[in-house]
Predict the structure.
Amino acid sequence: MMFETLSENLQNAIHKIKGYGKITENNIAEMLREVRLALLEADVNYQVVKEFTNKVKEQALGEEVQRSIKPGDLFVKIVKDELVNLLGKETKALNLKGQPAVLMLVGLQGSGKTTTIAKLANFIRKKYHKRPLMLAADIYRPAAIQQLQQLGRELNIDVYSENSKDVAIIANNAIKYAQENNYDYVLIDTAGRLHIEDELMQELREIKEKVNPQEILLVIDAMIGQDAINVINGFNEKLPLTGVVLTKLDGDTKGGVALSARQLTNVPIKFVGISEKLDGLELFNPERMASRIIGMGDVISLVEKASEIIDEKETLSAAKRLKSGKFDLEDFLVQMKQIK
């Protein structure tokens, strides 16, 4: 579970300061030492940790504590607010203004681009009720096109592909096809590459010049740790990134890259992968993520997820049948399927 260890360690530190009558130079130093260790253990960049703890200390000692507010509660608020700032302050929405809007996904080999593009197409279709078209533009990896086509069949989303070696022309043809067939979005799945591979990076620039995408998103595996910062900066120097998609945050990852990325690269995190399922992608929300990290929960995300799954009309109908004594095994089965 993402940030599990960090959340546990931060909550332990916060729990201790809640026992103090007031915040002093001495006890804040002790608490911040624990916060610092928790962040470093979570693989947050050292410079980021240093700046973060300095800001928290400055605010905690500078705040005038009102009588109605306990010092511990004030400290929690300061830590949360600084975490929100560190994570990027606010959710960065996708730019979907084109006709069609074009989203291009880039990244290293094995970062999960192909699965992510299917998740993103599914997310966009559900959220905006529009028609996405996925473009299979990875002409190098064996079976990459077939993989995207299979994901398209599972989601009932169309996939465009060509038997050609010129990726920029394939992309341009896909845009024309999307315009002629009334697709609202085109999502381009590119081949994995290193940012130091000049020839392959030039290929991405050629695609960009041909189709002028509204979004260029770097898909990156959160499990590679702080090396992700070098990858983000490396790609961004050669191709203007509009955002990052962090995958595998549901795995055995410390999650520190999410806390370091925005400050060290100035590229916003737009999405995070939270499960292997094709609906396992969510908008990155700094406010909610900060609440999760310090143990305040994220009820809003749970409610949103439940509203996506639960059929409100069916649930109300079942409630009426239950009240009238007509609730049977068929009704029970429907309810169990929604819970599942």
About this structure: Residues 14 and 50 are 18 Å apart (CA to CA).
